[in-house]
């Protein structure tokens, strides 16, 4: 439950696992250059999962720099969409605080490199606004599930699931299916670490890799 309503745990987990699928080369080619997240939503809808699109749409950090888009999204975002967006901002190679995550992002994508990207380089003012909006998402999500940000943890089954995926990808290296599985594990692993951080998603009894 969250703020008096139930949350679709399976929808959240599926969206977390697949939100970055448009980063895979095969999918990227198939979605015709759509912006990140829109490409994932379009591909998933085409493959029978249109319900994931609205949950995925708000996760890219770049959305936070678009004032009009963010204002509309944050007013209408479902609990599932908030959880996925927040989780993505806490999930690096491990669970990180929001401050750590943004510091890492800025190190990996310095202004000179961002200037070469389609969205261009952000000013210090834009970066400050993006951080404030990310903090708002954190606050809303934590209030929604009734927990402090510092108490957020990963679900227990994720580590075993990622290890199994990596072993599978390694064992089938060189095969097309294996390469795709490995790329998917790499592209989506971090996000699942984040979504499983949601305290409202309690580990199910006897949960194992999914």
How would you sum up this structure, described in words?
With about 210 residues, this protein is mostly helical. It has one domain (about 10-195). It has helices spanning about 10-20, 25-30, 40-45, 55, 65-75, 80-90, 100-110, 110-115, 125-145, 155-170, 175-195. The protein is globular, with a radius of gyration of 17 Å.
Which key phrases capture this entry?
mainly alpha, single chain, 210 residues
Low-confidence stretches: 176-210
Distance between the termini: 22 Å
Structural class: mainly alpha
Shape: globular
Query: What is the radius of gyration computed over CA atoms, rounded to a whole number of angstroms?
Result: 17 Å
**Mean of pLDDT:** 78
Beta-strand content bin = under 5%
Topology at a glance:
Layout: H1 9-18, H2 25-30, H3 38-46, H4 53-56, H5 67-76, H6 79-88, H7 98-108, H8 111-114, H9 124-145, H10 157-171, H11 176-195
Helix pairs in contact: 1-6, 1-11, 6-9, 6-11, 10-11
Short précis:
By secondary structure, the protein is an all-alpha fold.
